Amino acid sequence: MQRKSFYKTKREKPEFDQKIIDIRRVARVVAGGRRFSFRVTIVIGDRKGRVGVGLGKGADTALAIDKAVHIAKKNLVKIPLTKNNSIPYEVEAKFTCAEIIIRPAREGRGLVAGSSVRVVLDLAGVKDVAAKVISRSKNKLNIARATISALQKLK
Q1: Exposure winner among 55, 66, 67, 121, fewest CB in 10 A?
Q2: How far is CA 109 from the centre of its chain?
């Protein structure tokens, strides 16, 4: 008689990969002092052309992450990719003060991007592009949303 091993069960692969780009502790002032909560910014994608950014707030990080994933799934964007997993043409976008440019690169160049632009493009499945954050903004959430805005302009 063979025994089933508890530890060797196969786990199902989730539909979306996720990456946390920012966790912050935020406070609001109440009568007794300060109440602290957490704000989590998360990017989810299937590496096949769908990507989304979500922002969740909660009393602890686990709760905030769950909320952020739920919101990111509601805000998914479909990206038209070329046959070699690049973008068809150069596109630029601005969200609040974060401004970015995304250009297609020659095949084999890879993903040349920094900050949260790299995370968004990687989880979207984009391979050969060069991206640049033009603005002085260091806000990861605004840069990620500017990237999503740029990708939405692609037809």
Answers
A1: 66
A2: 22
